[in-house]
Design goal:
Elements lengths: L13 H22 L4 H29 L8 H9 L3 H14 L14 H19 L13 H7 L2 H11 L14 H21 L2
Helix pairs in contact: 1-2, 1-4, 1-7, 2-3, 5-8, 6-8
Length: 205
């Protein structure tokens, strides 16, 4: 794995960015559940992922508040998990949207997504090495498929896709499982996935 240059951290700090990104991803996952057109196995995977994220969110929000030098009362995550278990998805969405307004996803250094041809070429090489084995031909008969990134980039609103790139990419033992990409590399990957389409995907195989 090629280690990335240090990421450009937003003025609010990386915990604040991650908190905002996690909330945006949870809201996107809830919308998938509300559409109801997924296999039951994948619905379970989404519910488990949302519940797990909610469990770790209080610590992340506290760290985000420390970065901002502020004190806020913590949301009732037990109540949020009950709403999820009861499938009260509209109420859960309303609560999380209100929380998201207090912890917005700041995509400084990532959006707007622009990149030179050279950076897009580098992104294609990174995709081939790190992403293609799982994402180009995803195995869908599982609770949490590694969806095709070219397809997702077209289907999702760009801020949600950027948030998923921030929280969903993991490194290996050498990086402490942190996201191995810099902001510039994530930005270039987003351009690759959103603008080059099937031709780049065919080239990655």
């Amino acid at each position: 794995m090629v280690l990335a240059d240090p990421a450009i951290v937003s003025a609010e700090g990386e915990h604040s960015r991650r908190a905002g990104a996690e909330l945006l991803v949870i809201l996107g996952d809830i919308q998938k559940l509300k559409r109801g057109n997924l296999p039951e196995k994948q619905k379970k995977g989404l519910r488990d992922r949302i519940s797990g994220t909610l469990s770790g969110l209080p610590l992340l929000l506290r760290l985000a508040d420390e970065e901002r030098n502020r004190i806020r009362s913590q949301p009732d995550m037990d109540r949020y998990r009950r709403l999820l278990a009861e499938q009260s998805l509209n109420d859960l969405t309303t609560n999380l949207k209100n929380l998201s307004r207090s912890y917005p996803f700041r995509a400084t250094g990532i959006l707007p997504a622009t990149a030179s041809n050279q950076l897009i070429g580098n992104a294609l090489q990174q995709h081939k090495t790190l992403c293609a084995p799982c994402h180009d031909s995803p195995y869908l008969d599982t609770e949490r498929p590694a969806y095709n990134l070219f397809d997702q980039a077209q289907e999702l609103e760009i801020r949600e896709f950027a948030a998923r790139m921030v929280v969903g990419v993991r490194g290996d033992a050498t990086t402490g499982l942190d996201n191995p990409f810099s902001d510039a590399e994530i930005r270039s990957l987003i351009v690759l996935y959103r603008t080059t389409g099937n031709s780049a995907q065919s080239e990655s195989r």
